[in-house]
Structure prediction request, 135 residues.
Amino acid sequence: MQQTKALSLLQPWASLVIMGLKKIETRSWSTPYRGLLLIHASAGKAGKLVAENPAIKKHISNFKELPFGCIIGQVQLTDIVRVGELQLPDDEIDKLSLEEKAFGDNKARFAWLFADAEVFEEPIPATGRLGLWEF
Prediction:
């Protein structure tokens, strides 16, 4: 298998990304990389309380049934821009997750823009890493 770039995210955000519902991930850092990006659901359970939010619960009914510690899908990383430079129409802003809106005030962060989300039929067990990593 050819090495591919991967990004680890906590649940429920990892699942929301590969479902195509979360199209922006904010990070404190950028990368020149653009292209195919595997999404790894980390083993951490820190997002459990967030998963109880009704906006998330309507898409992910049971946090405990989510996959953890594995690659669950892929997206295209199309661009990265500073949050302060992000230009979105009002209807797109209305669709942003609570996390994306919360980070919106921090103009120093970077918005990673995703497209073409795809869920894998079978998760691939993997140990994640910080930053962008090779799988």
Remarks:
- The first strand starts at residue 5 and ends at 9.
